[in-house]
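User: Second chain of the day. Same drill as before.
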Amino acid sequence: MHEAEAPIGPPSFPSQASCGFYLVHRGTGIALHMSASPEHLREMRQAVYKAVAGSGIGEAVAEAARLVASELVGNAVRACGPWVPVIVQVDPGEGAVRVHVHDPQPAALPERGERSPDNSEAETGRGLWILDAIAPGWTVETTPVGKQVSCTLPVLACV
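Assistant: Same format as last time:
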């Protein structure tokens, strides 16, 4: 067998994989493929926090990234239903943390409710207001298999 034909070995496996939950570490960031169940949401929040805090950016930014990812996945569940397959990507970088959440429903675009964010009777509807405050300029892009909501959390604003 020639060197070019030699098998390159098994792929490196993620640090965490279970039914409906597949976490891959990419540099200082993560890519998480998951079915949105309550258990997976808890694990996702922990993974996001660990990825950001572990990159040396700081706990305040890690908390903000965890909140943003949680709100975006919550929106996907409301739009698509429980156990929706989502992809959560977190990329800590110099000066900013990028959070992307992809879900399979391109037509269910995020919309603000009619109630103001400080309405004491509202039980939901604050997620997009939170995104505006923590990650201004978030975007939604339709993709061939759904949509992706992307946020950039400036590190200086979160410290």
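The first strand starts at residue 16 and ends at 18.

User: Great, on to the next one.
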